[in-house]
Amino acid sequence: MNILITGGGCREAIDNVRCVTNTSTGRTSAIIADYFSAQGCQVTALTAATAIKPQGKCTIRTFVSGVDLGRLLEEELTAKEYHLVIHAAAVSDFIPETVIMDGVEVAAGPEGKIPSGSSMVIKFKAAPKLADRIKGWSRDGGHQDPTVICFKLTSGAEPEKVLAACHAILARGAADFVVANDILNITSESHPFAVNILQDNQVVAFDRGETEEEMAKILYKIATQTK
After folding, report:
1. CA within 20 to 30 Å of 118's CA: 47, 93, 154, 161, which one?
2. What beta strand segments (E) does 21-157 contain?
3. Distances 135 to 76, 129, 141 between C-alpha atoms, Å
4. DSSP H or E run through 193
5. Do 227 and 2 touch, CB atoms closer than 8 A?
């Protein structure tokens, strides 16, 4: 069974020394990748360059930005048929577009360093939703649609807002399952989560757990049930 997993956080360049990133460590995706590998799956892990890496028998490819990750996803999904895609990477929602330094506007990006000044304003543009393109890329390669599991991380969100966010992902067909978790509930020892699906246009819990190890087992169960 071929499994594709993404993990870690993207870094989006302001210039060639500054960037915008997030706090994702890649730990969750590494644990999941190692569990699937231990079950005999052929695992390809697309991980951020600075993320925690799987230790098991996995093919590892690294990325820096969301554009990098999109390129890797397209390459993998068109070249090879994957049964399951677990999209756990913390992909940037917005990318720096221009920088206004002391009233002077210049393009953002990895080419050159913007001089220091007394004030800086950064304008962002919306980043592409990579999750929405996973199944299309697989079809472009002549393959069947993989089962897609996406992640939705919130911060202190009310339950109804979490369900609404999961519904938006599931309803547009980007994913078959969504793992919902909240950063305020995550500790070094606990990682509460719910794996959600859409039934009769309502989001319902497929399963729940309290640790990343439990999460890996539940996602493996999904893989074997949808094989």
Report:
1. 93
2. 42-48, 58-63, 84-87, 94-101, 104-107, 120-126, 147-154
3. 12, 12, 10
4. strand 193-199
5. no
Beta strands 202-209 and 193-199, pairing class: antiparallel
Cβ-based neighbour number of residue 103 at 10 Å: 8
Nearest Cα neighbor of 195 from 121, 212, 140, 123 is: 212
CA angle 195-201-202, nearest 5°?
A: 45
Give the integer Cα–Cα distance in Å for 192 and 162: 14
Strand-pair partners of 120: 101
For 94, the token pair is: 């917005």
pTM: 0.94
**Alpha-carbon span 12 to 152, nearest angstrom:** 20
Q: Are 21 and 96 in contact (CB under 8 A)?
A: no
Sign, CA torsion 125/131/136/142: positive
Neighbours of 65 (CB within 10 A): 21
Q: What is the pLDDT along the chain (227 residues), one digit of tens a residue?
A: 999 999 999 999 999 999 999 999 999 999 999 999 999 999 999 999 999 999 989 999 999 999 999 999 999 999 999 999 999 999 999 999 999 988 889 899 998 888 887 788 999 999 999 999 999 999 999 999 999 999 999 999 999 999 999 999 999 999 999 999 999 999 888 999 999 999 999 999 999 999 999 999 999 999 998 76
